[in-house]
Amino acid sequence: MTSGHQPIRAVAAGVLLSVEQGQSLSQCLPPALNRVGDHERAELQALCYGSCRWFHRLDAELGDRLKKPLRKPDRIIHHLMLVALFQLRFSDRAATYAVVNEAVEACRALGKPHLTGLVNGVLRGAQRDDAPEPGDDPARFSHPRWMVDKLRHNWPDDWQRILDANNTQAPMTLRVNARRFTREQYLALLEDAGIEATPTRFAPHGLQLTRPTPVDRLPWFADGAVSVQDEAAQLCTTLLDLAPGQRVLDACAAPGGKTCAILEACDALAEVVAIDESADRLPRVEENLERLDLVATLKQADAARIEDWWDGDAFDRILLDVPCSATGVIRRHPDIKLLRRESDIVPLAGIQLGLLNAMWTILKPGGRLVYATCSVFPQENHRIIQRFRKQCADSILVEPEVTWGHDTGAGRQLLPNPDSHDGFFYAVLEKPEP
């Protein structure tokens, strides 16, 4: 270990504790990566993501192995044992004897030498025993109980497949910049570079890589040839029915993947306005636009407070990708299992309906609005559309002619597929002409 750096398991335990206390991996992992050597960063990321992914199963086993819970000041040692247990149960890269020994050393490094005997004993027992049979569905599927119960209720024929898909590694999918290459042309460039890929089934410009690849290995990536974007997220442009001369709004736009996809899909739009409430996230949109050599009007604002940012010129097309529970992208963000609460859903639904009502007022007659979430809960998806249409009886629900997703009667629901797309919901609404 490089001088000045901390043991990797100690750092991972600190990250896991931060997630349990409410920080996302995207918030607490980047500074943690600076506390380990360069050659350990990939391993630290794998430890943190894997421990979050299997947290509920590992926590159930650890709870059975501990005679009593650790005191709150020692909670980080609980997470240290979870990280080591993850390696014992799910990692093929480390010899099990090294995992136990290094966890004991990490316990000392965390200033808890009085607990080294406990760490050693618990992990030696886990090393000696086979993984126990999970005692209930939350442990078996490694999800919080409320989420298991809600998915079972919402999707009685699919809930187990959803939970299993959430525990898989998501594929790496690209969106080919149609201004630069056809999909077939870029597929040939990938083949020349020795990178295996196949066309996505539903997204017309998508390519799914057989194995994840660093973006600096992708041909012409820095020059805007492709972007990394899940297939489900790419489908927004197929629903917007874009045409030259239109004024388009991407509400809640950061990090800008869909903004860029809109601009790539139709290069003669009058204007694309991209709004996001977060000042910290808007630079990501700028970076993506610059790399792809695209231009949009960026505004930091709460999209629902239209009086703060709208110039009075209505939009022909609006993409409303609302804040949601993100339960369709858990495989990419396994910390959602620890961060999200059932009590979050009702407030989120209120925000979603409020945004939809606000955006409707600035949509031109004859215009089209695409409502989107990366959630699999009907309460955030087709039920929002049903509630909105009761309030706005003249809104027209457009049934897109597509073969993907479940027809909910008020939009299309994609469930996470372990071999392709994330979970996503889309509904298409049009405002009638006067």
TrEMBL record:
Subcellular location: Cytoplasm
Binding site for S-adenosyl-L-methionine: C252, A253, A254, P255, G256, G257, K258, D276, D302, D321
InterPro entries: MeTrfase_RsmB-F_NOP2_cat, MeTrfase_RsmB-F_NOP2_dom, NusB-like_sf, NusB_RsmB_TIM44, RCMT, rRNA_ssu_MeTfrase_B, RsmB-like_ferredoxin, RsmB/NOL1/NOP2-like_CS
Pfam families the record matches: Methyltr_RsmB-F, NusB, RsmF-B_ferredox
GO molecular function: RNA binding; rRNA (cytosine-C5-)-methyltransferase activity
Record keywords, A-Z: Cytoplasm, Methyltransferase, RNA-binding, rRNA processing, S-adenosyl-L-methionine, Transferase
Biological process annotations from GO: regulation of DNA-templated transcription; rRNA base methylation
EC number: 2.1.1.176
Domain SAM-dependent MTase RsmB/NOP-type: 162-432
Reported function: Specifically methylates the cytosine at position 967 (m5C967) of 16S rRNA.
Name this polypeptide is given: 16S rRNA (cytosine(967)-C(5))-methyltransferase
Organism name: Marinobacter santoriniensis NKSG1
